[in-house]
Amino acid sequence: MATSNSSAASSSPSPATTSHTSSQPPSSEVEGLLSRLIHAGMGPISSIAKIIEKLLAINPGQRLYIVEQLFSKILGRETPIDDREVPFERLMNVLAALPREVSDKFTSRLIATFWQDLQHPTRYWPGVPFRSADGSNNSHIYPHMGASNTSYARSVTGSYQQTYSELPDPRALFRDLMERPTSQPFEPHPTGINSLLFCLAGLITHDLFRSDPANPAINLTTHYADLSPVYGVNQAEQNQVRTFQQGSLLPDTFADPRLQFQIPGIVAMVILFSRNHNYIARQLLSDAVNVAENYRFTHINGHDSPELSPQRTDELVFQTARLINCACYANLILHEYLRTILGLSSDTDFTLNPLMSPPAADPSSGNMVSLEFGYIYRWHSALSKEDAKWLDKFQISRRYHELRTRSQNASGQGQDRTTIFADILEDLHYTREEFEHGPVCMGIHRNPKSHAFNNIDLINILKGSMESVASRMGAKKVPTELAEVEVQGIRGARKVGLCTLNEFRRFFNLKEYRSYEEMLSGPGVAADPDVVKALEKHYGPNGIDRVELYPGVVIEGTKTDGLSLPYTTSRAILSDAVNLLRNDRFYTDGLNRHDLTVWGYNYVNDPSNAAITHGSVFRQIVLNALPEWDSVIGDPEFAEKLLRTPFRVPNQES
Fold first, then answer.
1. What span, in angstroms and rounded, lies between the C-alpha atoms of 651 and 170?
2. Which positions ≥6 away from 21 have C-beta within 8 Å?
3. Helix, strand, coil percentages, rounded to 5, for the chain
4. Is 154 found in the same domain as 107?
5. 258: closest CA among 205, 305, 304, 296?
6. What is the C-alpha to C-alpha distance for residues 50 and 65, in angstroms, rounded to an integer?
7. 489-527 confidence digits (pLDDT tens)
8. Which residues contact 554 (CB under 8 A, 6 or more apart)?
9. Rounded average pLDDT over 234-252
10. Which of 53, 172, 329, 470 has a CA 20 to 30 Å removed from the CA of 623?
């Protein structure tokens, strides 16, 4: 039998000797002893008694080596363990025979190993499988983290505080540093990125940032990439876009009223995801999917069990369709958006995937978007020539300002927002009845019977955005029509106390700028002397450390590759994108065949078209939502090219 701890201790070296003994390189005798222990199998303890007697007879260093090797063989983490080759009980037999000071050391390691086997806290909560309407309960530890109507985070606490009297006039800053001069020729994007890429960026921005006008430190939307512009930021908004029948949304609906004042390409992108939701809902209730999922959407537990109520079916289908739709959204961000930002070819499968493992993501803490990133994502300078003309034609800034002013003053006057909206857009022939059928997309109208937009109109909007080259970014590139928006942006940044541009760069371990010329220049592009003079006028001859984050991130020099973003922005958004997805449990833990269904998981990953799409689901979304795509475009080869490289103008190499 194995010797007890007490008897073993009496015949072993003294504790002082043992406690300082380290393992020694093995001899052939030691290796043979280790091999016999490993291969002793599951026999009775008596079968290894002689092996343990020999183990106790060798010197402490060699004995320690054997125990460490046995421990690694049974509980190591480097490679999967064959628990039939070396039974765990064999290790316990050996530890029981060792001196107490040695066995305690390994017992402590055992306890640590077993504790680390499970997550602390547990990440997987199958009882809460769906996204809440307001973004709460994404984190089980901090259930309100990232919910709508909660505070933004602050990434950088600025140490260079300036009084308002010391700060330049916001209108003068826009005029001298940001405004796109109409007297100079339009500068196209250097890598041929089209307007549609920035339409997706606009959707992401509205998804993540919706500041409270009364308190811009509060975010009225959720802090997650969860398509809240489509689904709403609370239960009341979500209820307004649902039919409550078979999990579907109202035709071509979206919940965020701000989008009605955005360029048509952004609205078209939102409608694609609205239609994608309804396509997914129909598939989930089809026999092909529902039967394969053991009737999970129509019956309690299989075909022979009682049927679910129509309300329960509607809820299950709606919530599951939203999970799949959001997964499609994340797929587009990963496989098209990030790939374009990084300047990767469209025919590569590689992307910077924040969800890959290792390192394993841990979304337990949830996500909070920060004040700074609300300004990092203001990319108005990239608006194409065509989009800038559209803004001017429809007088978007004036109409939006009028809507906000009249809405704020309408309290007690018996006018609701829909009535005000109809008045403001009366000259564009939008009626109150049309507003009651859903939000508008300026320039096109809904079908009065189906309440949906015309497919041909939507295809032409998407095609126009794909063929419209974006603007080069940097100083003096923001269209004049957005002057009021930018002025309010500068004032808002000051109100919440944003840091300076150099302080933000220091946070990301980027070299601080030492001059205006350094800040404004880029590869092959010298600093504009007029902008340098304007900066000297507004911030002082040596005021580089006074330049505010906003408008600093708008006017600094740009890269020449990929999205050709301003330098600070190009670094910061990668950190934001990685954290945005990795801090969301529905992307780290929820992208599986159970939660999405097998069909939904395959739809997101599009395995049948992998050679064509290189992982992107965008092509399939467009073809499902707009089946006339090929016929409207006319040329099948050109129609396919637009979908394979959706974010580059067609005549550009991808």
1. 39
2. 13, 60, 61, 64
3. 55, 5, 40
4. no
5. 205
6. 19
7. 999 999 999 999 999 999 999 999 999 999 999 888 899
8. 177, 178, 378, 380, 381, 473, 475, 478, 566
9. 98
10. 470
Residue type at position 191? T
Those residues with Cβ within 8 angstroms of residue 148's Cβ, 6 or more apart along the chain or in another chain: 134, 135, 219, 220, 221, 222, 228, 233, 234
Q: pLDDT higher for 100 or 593?
A: 593
483 pLDDT exceeds 90? yes
CA distances from 432 to 98, 251, 362, 420, 612 (A): 86, 17, 48, 9, 44
Same domain (yes/no): 327, 445: yes
Q: Looking at the domain assignment, is residue 35 inside a domain?
A: yes
Q: Take residue 173 and report the two structure tokens written for it.
A: 């800053």
Annotate 189-202 with DSSP letters as a single string. Answer: -TT-BBHHHHHHHH
pLDDT above 90: residue 295 = yes
pLDDT of residue 363: 67
> How many independent structural domains does the chain possess?
2
Question: Do 216 and 323 belong together in one domain?
Answer: yes
Same domain, 156 and 104: no
Mean pLDDT of 359-377: 84
380 is in an annotated binding site: yes
Q: Is the peptide bond before 359 cis (omega within 30 degrees of 0)?
A: yes
Q: Are residues 452 and 309 in the same domain?
A: yes
Active-site amino acid positions: 377
Q: Tell me, what amino acid is at 283? A: Q
For residue 388, what pLDDT is reported? 96
In a domain, 314, yes or no: yes
The two structure tokens encoding residue 510? 């980027």
154 and 75 share a domain?
no
Find all residues with CB under 8 Å of 163, minimum gap 6, and list them.
none
pLDDT, tens digit, for every residue of 29-56?
778 877 777 776 555 656 677 777 777 7
Q: Residue 615 in contact with residue 351, Cβ under 8 Å? A: yes
Band of pLDDT at residue 446, cut at 50, 70 and 90: very high
DSSP 161: -
In this prediction the pTM is: 0.88
Residues 6+ apart with CB under 8 A from 206: 221, 229, 256, 258, 259, 262, 266
Domain stop point among 98, 117, 136: 117
Q: How confident is the model at residue 342 (pLDDT cuts 50, 70, 90)?
A: confident
Q: Please tell me whether the peptide bond between 213 and the residue prior to it is cis, using omega within 30 degrees of 0.
A: no
Looking at the domain assignment, is residue 126 inside a domain?
no
In whole angstroms, what is the distance from residue 484 CA to residue 261 CA? Answer: 14
333-343 burial, b for 16+ CB within 10 Å, e for fewer?
bbbbbbbbbee
Residue 473: CB partners within 8 Å, gap ≥ 6? 189, 379, 381, 382, 554, 558, 564, 565, 566
Instruction: Tell which residue, 519, 508, 509, has the closest CA to residue 548.
Output: 519
- Length of the chain, please? 654
**pLDDT tens digits for range 275-288:** 999 999 999 999 99
Contacts of 523 (CB under 8 A, 6+ apart): 559, 560
Instruction: For residues 455 and 602, state if they share a domain.
Output: yes
- Measured in degrees and rounded to the nearest 5, phi and psi for residue 638 equal -70, -40
Give counts: helices (H), strands (E), the chain. 33, 3
Containing structural domain, residue 43: 5-117
Domain co-membership, 229 together with 356: yes
| pLDDT value of residue 12 | 38
Q: Is the dihedral of CA 519, 521, 522, 528 positive or negative?
A: positive
498 part of a folded domain: no
For residue 568, give the nearest of 515, 642, 512 by alpha carbon.
512
